[in-house]
Each structure stands twice: as C-alpha cells, then as structure tokens.
Amino acid sequence: MKIILVGFGIIGKGVLKAINLKSEHLKKKYGLDLKVAAICDRSGAAIDEEGLDLELALKVKEETRKISNYPEKGCKMDILEVIGSVNADVVVEVSPTNIETGEPAKSYMLKAFETKKHVVSANKGPLAVSFKELVTAAEKNKLCFRYEASVGGAMPIINLAKETLAGNDVKLIKGILNGTTNYILTKMEKEQLDFDTVLKEAQELGIAETNPHQDISGLDTAAKIVILANSIFGRDVTIKDVNLEGITRITPEALVMANKSGHTIKLIGEVTDKKLEVCPKLVPVDSPLNVMGCLNVAMFDTDLANDIVVVGTGAGDIETASAILSDLINIHQTIKN
Amino acid sequence: MIFLDLELKDSPGELLKALQPISSAGANIFSVIHMRENKTRDGRVPVKVVIEKLNDNLLHSIIENLEKLDVIVAKINEKRKKINLEIVVVGHIVDTDVLDTIDRINEIGTVVDLDLTMPDPIAESSARMRITIDNEKLKELYDEFDKIAKEKGLLFIKSC
C-alpha cells in the first residue's frame, strides 16, 4: 500500500519512525507492505512512487528542515499538486491544525478524495469545522476516511465506539481529552502552585505550547468533543455550539476546597445527543476519571456494556502514530476484503 | 409498602428523632435498617425505613416533618428525591454580595455548608458549598448558577 504523507512536523516524523520500526511486523502479521510514495512539508516534497528511503528522509529533515532537499527526488511541488498527481492509495494528513477554518488541511483531504485516495488524519481542525462535507466526499467516492488520532492520541475512542462497541447505544462520553490542562491542574493541586507558574514551567518542559491558548481555553477539547458528537452521535455541530469554559480561573485554593469534599478539579469534555460542554468539573478522587499528569481518559455510558473507561497518552509523536498505523491497517484490511 | 432512604446526622438520639414523625402520623413501621458502616460523603448515617402504604397527603406531611428535623429524605421507593450537591465557586464571592448569592440558591435548594478562603484582598476567592436539593430542581439550580455567574463574574464548578 502506497501512502502520501502530508505534514512533516513532530507527528509526521513520528509516523515515519513507526512505519520504519514496524515494517517487518506489518508484513508478517497483516501482509501489509507500506511504501511512502511522497512526503510533503512547507518547502515542497520528496517523491518516489517505488518508496522513499525513510531514514534518509528523516535525516534530511533533521539536518536541513526541508524535505525538498531530499537528494534527487526532492522538489518544490505544491502539496495539492502532489496529492493530485502522485500514484498512491492513502493520504496521511498530519499538517498543522487550524480550528477556525480547517484549512489548508481540509482542501488536502478533499483533493485526496477527488483523486480516489483514502484518507487517514490526525487533524482536528477540518474535522471540527467541516465534518459532514469531508464524510460526504469520502462516501461519494466510496473511500475510507479514518481519524482515530484526532481525538485522544493513542487512546482508542472513535474506533472503540464505532467498531468494538458496535451494537451498543452510546448515551454519553465524558473525559479529559487534553493532556496539557491535566498536567497543569495535577501540578497545581500537588504543589499548591498558581496557574501562571505551572503554565510557565509546562512551557519550559515543552508540555505546553508557546501559545497555549487553544489548550487552556478549552478550545482543543471542544474540537475533540465536536468530532465525537458528529462521528459517534451523528450530530451536525461545530465548535461554536460548545458551551465552553477553560481552566485559567482555577486557583490552588479552589483545588484545596475541592479536596475537602473528596474531589479534584479536571477540565471535562462531555457529549450526549443534546449536550456539548467543556468546563472545569469536580471529579471524585476515587473516580476512574481522576487520572494524573498528561494522561487522557474517556468514559462511555452505553446501554448494553454499561460504563467503559479508556485511559492513555493523548499526545506525542509515536503515540499518535500508533493510532494512525491502526487506521492504515484497517484500510488495508478493508481493501483486501 | 413504602421504602424511605433517610440520611441522619451522626449523633446520639437521631434515629429515635427520625422515627417520631412517622409514628406520630400513625403509620406502621415494618423495618428499620441502620447502615452505620456506609456513611455518606458528608458523614451522615443512611437509614432504610419500610412503612405501610399511606395516602400522598400523609406521606407528604411526614416528609415535611422529617426535613424540619434536619433529616434528609434521599429516596422514596428507590426514586431519588434529595441530593447533596458539592460545588466550588471562584471569583469575588464576598464583594459581589455573598448573602444574595446564598439567598438565591436557597430559593431553589438549601446551602447547608459553606467554606470560604480569601488568600489576598485583591485576588479572587474560592468557596466550597454543599447544597441539598430536590432532584427535580437540579436544572433550575444550574440555570440560576449560570445567571449569577454572568451577573457577578463568578465561576461555578459543578460535579461531574
């Protein structure tokens, strides 16, 4: 199976590392021979329909920051042109997210569907903004569109609800879907530090981004629950429909007050067929939702299986690549059958 | 038969006090199970009382009298009646008239405990409230929280 990798940042590099690491395992266990026919970044692309040398691609990117410097096969071709012209089965879309317009990732995905390529994405923006348009384009062209990595990183959420829990009526999903805010609240609680101090430390450690607005305002979690609302609950909503409150007003004293009644405070995203909410909530300390540090957690309330809880790493290059790889394997098996 | 789930303060004589309004109303008590080992989060002792079937008016008057004695009637026939709600509030709680905030909550439920911390005269303060409320009035209370939050710039952190 040939893929085009769009986006060669932390996640893109993680995808190549995971493919490299698992290539023999994928061949043996699934009969899947993954070849990367093209890699695109802002500088251009490297193209070889017979399969690029992944270690060389990673080396070129590391040393020059531009994939267009890949020897002989590097070029300045535009990403849309690469998607349209290179012969491949799947586009793996992991370019930077834009949760206001979803662009340019949305156009990349539409171009992929238009040129009969399946899509695997880790990109929240286009899914939160234009879910229906993208799903319709995939269905119209009878193509697979999978996006497990867009919510909860390595943690199975979308595929768990749609496939493993198939037959169940999922009544509610709630949980912590942003590791940065969980890290900040955990640290504030443990060390009685104020929000600004912990945020600064998280930025120095690379846990929070230089511009942490999307995380701490709850927008990142909101984008994820919109994806869950649309993909699992069959709703047609966008971020604007989310009742949103971030964690910037949480004080160490508020956490002490919560502790006094046997609770802690977590930024919880909650979705049902009517509700769409992201806000700090009191969580009992003995609840499975009380996970620490950068961990993510999701609780499903279902009619047959009752409560199901998944806990995992919500971010990270290899962790996200794990979800992408599972989507690629699923597409391979779908094509085979 | 009617099954009542009561929650009593953990002090001597409370069980006897709680049975008084039932026996005074002339209702037969079939059984009383005192569950000292399963205390509630706020330290109350759950008691299950089974009484004979009564008409609605008599039952209502018994419940009213129990509540006057600070007995929480948590469930009637397994249907949850009262809940104990914990919330944390962040903001300028005192400066925005804390009495008015409590009065407005008390019109819907009852604030039974308040713990307030003011680390700095300028910084926002934090408070913990425990509210006892009829289950069916929960949405009304949450709507009032939203109203107060907008008016006074307070953040109400509700239970998950």
Automatic annotation (TrEMBL), chain A:
SUPFAM superfamilies (UniProt xref): Glyceraldehyde-3-phosphate dehydrogenase-like, C-terminal domain, NAD(P)-binding Rossmann-fold domains
Organism, as annotated: Methanococcus maripaludis
Domain Aspartate/homoserine dehydrogenase NAD-binding: 7-147
Xref: PROSITE patterns: HOMOSER_DHGENASE (PS01042)
Amino acids binding L-homoserine: E209
Lineage: Archaea, Methanobacteriati, Methanobacteriota, Methanomada group, Methanococci
UniProt: NADP(+) binding residues: G7, F8, G9, I10, I11, G12
Protein name: Homoserine dehydrogenase
The family this protein is said to belong to: Belongs to the homoserine dehydrogenase family.
Domain Homoserine dehydrogenase catalytic positions: 156-329
GO biological process, one term: methionine biosynthetic process
Binding site for NADPH: K124
Keywords: Amino-acid biosynthesis, Methionine biosynthesis, NADP, Oxidoreductase, Threonine biosynthesis
Record-linked PANTHER family: HOMOSERINE DEHYDROGENASE
Keyword NADP attached: yes
E.C. code: 1.1.1.3
NCBIfam families in the record: PRK06270.1, PRK06349.1
Signal sequence extent: none
TrEMBL record, chain B:
InterPro entries: ACT-like_dom_sf, ACT_dom, ACT_ThrD-II-like
Residue ranges occupied by any ACT domain in the UniProt entry: 3-81
Membrane-crossing segments per the record: none
Protein name per UniProt: ACT domain-containing protein
